Amino acid sequence: MDRQIIHIDMDAFYASIEQRDNTKFKGKPVIVGGVSDRGVVSTASYEARKYGVRSAMPIKVAKRLCPNGIYLPVNMEKYKKASRQIHKILSKYSDKIEPISIDEAFLDVTDKNSIMVARSIKKDIQKQTQLTASVGISINKFLAKLASDVKKPNGLTVIKKEDAVEFLKPLPVSKLWGVGPKMQRELNKLGIYYIGDIQRYDKDVLVSLFGKRGKEIYDFSFGIDLRPVEVDNVNQSIGEEETFLEDISNSKDLIDKLRLYSINLSNKLISKGFLARTITVKIKYVDFTVETRSITLNIPTDDEEVIFETSKKILINKFNFDKEVRLIGLTLSNLIYPDDPIQLSMKI
Ligand code: TTP
Ligand code: MG
Q1: Neighbours of 251 (CB within 10 A)
Q2: 180 & 267 share domain
Q3: Does one domain contain both 115 and 23?
Q4: 48, 84, 103, 232: which could form a disulfide with 13 (CB 3.0–4.6 Å)?
Q5: Is 200 in the same domain as 217?
Q6: Ligand 1 centroid, distance to 45 Cα (angstroms)
Q7: DSSP letter string, 141-174
Q8: Which atom belonging to ligand 1 lies closest to the Cα atom of 104?
Q9: H or E element, residue 293
């Protein structure tokens, strides 16, 4: 039996929250992002997008395009609160939920009427958060995500199995899952620009050129995607590690790595709606010996500064550097849901 997958993506998420909370901003171009002139745009309201303002654009450029826009700093706590409210609403409709960013999630609703569920989710979100979501429905994650993007803002789009190949045909290859700028250039070199070009291409040649990725791209181009909706589990841990190309002896490079890991892991926690209590730093030395040291916090966190400062403290105070370092890793464990007081009090 075909699956029924829903993808939810909030509309101009940070900017919509600011417009909701200040009536003066309604209907106006609102740009949320770094406030300094070196900052970048996190997101722009749909009114601001008419001027060409986009996520990741330098604020300086945005100000040139939209000098009369309302420029606001990022207020993460507020956005996280809305994200948690949305998680909670979604959990009413399915046990199979996979949050993929602060404002996006997949739901597997195979045993339900997906259109009714999608309408009901949109209504609940509107009522409880005064925000709008765009929803896509299809037989797998790849198509559901494309569907939610078809009619933004406030859309609801279904891509039926029998329409998938035609729907995909005119889209640029960059719409395929995992095709970034580098892969796109590789494909362009082969004369492949649109998904339809892949549909007509020889599968074996793609596999010989790109291995497993070649097969995936070929399958995606026909709307085939067997990946399950992956449900989160608070018992898991999340982490990052990297082996250095050259062994490292100065602590500054190690600290730089920890800062990068902290930013990435904080974002991951926020997108999943978790807080972490235990922070672990792992080091592998040139002689391949491995050491790990941890700190467990009294107050669980998803804050990148707290994660970074704690990991730095662990690195400086709990390791000795008489040998060069090959690899450094950072892991967060003891994960909890913030609005779960029973679990919280049990673990403290
Ligand atoms: P998106 O869902 O990509 O964008 P959006 O919700 O603002 O707009 P859309 O209606 O097109 O979905 O990202 C969600 C939030 O994540 C966004 O409001 C701000 C943040 N974000 C950044 O901070 N930097 C970025 O480069 C992007 C893309 C998003
Ligand atoms: Mg969004």
Answers
A1: 15
A2: no
A3: yes
A4: 103
A5: yes
A6: 10
A7: HHHHHHHHTTS-SS-EEE--GGGHHHHHTTSBGG
A8: 2
A9: strand 290-301
Residue tagged 């997906």 (tokens) = 114
Q: From ligand 2's centre to the CA of 328, what distance in Å?
A: 33
Asked about 47 being catalytic, the answer comes back as no
**Whose atoms come closest to the Cα of 46: which ligand?**
1
pLDDT in tens, 24-79: 999 999 999 998 878 999 999 999 999 999 999 999 999 999 999 999 999 999 99
Q: Compute, in angstroms, the gap from residue 154 CA to the centroid of ligand 2.
A: 11
Lowest model confidence (mean pLDDT) among 100-109, 172-181, 209-218, 245-254: 245-254
Q: Are residues 150 and 169 in the same domain?
A: no
Q: How confident is the model at residue 347 (pLDDT cuts 50, 70, 90)?
A: very low
The residue range of the domain holding 281 is: 237-336
**Domain-ending residue, one of 112, 137, 158:** 158
In terms of domains, do 139 and 2 share one? yes
Measured from CB, residues less than 6 Å from any atom of ligand 1 are 9-14, 42-43, 55-56, 102-104, 152-153
The number of domains in the chain is 3
Q: How far is CA 234 from CA 81, 105, 115, 274, in A?
A: 19, 17, 30, 8
Q: What is the pTM of this model?
A: 0.86
Spot the catalytic one: 104, 186, 241, 309.
104
Q: Which of 87, 93, 119, 126 is nearest to 108 (CA)?
A: 93
322 Cα: distance to centroid of ligand 1 (angstroms): 44
Domain membership of residue 261 (yes or no) is yes
Query: Does residue 312 carry a pLDDT above 80?
Result: yes
User: Does 5 share its domain with 117?
Assistant: yes
Q: Determine, yes or no, domain membership for 231.
A: no
Best probe residue, ligand 1, of 9, 13, 131 (max atoms within 8 Å of C-beta): 13
Q: Which two tokens stand for residue 1?
A: 């039996």
Question: Does residue 269 fall inside a structural domain?
Answer: yes
Same domain assignment for residues 149 and 21? yes
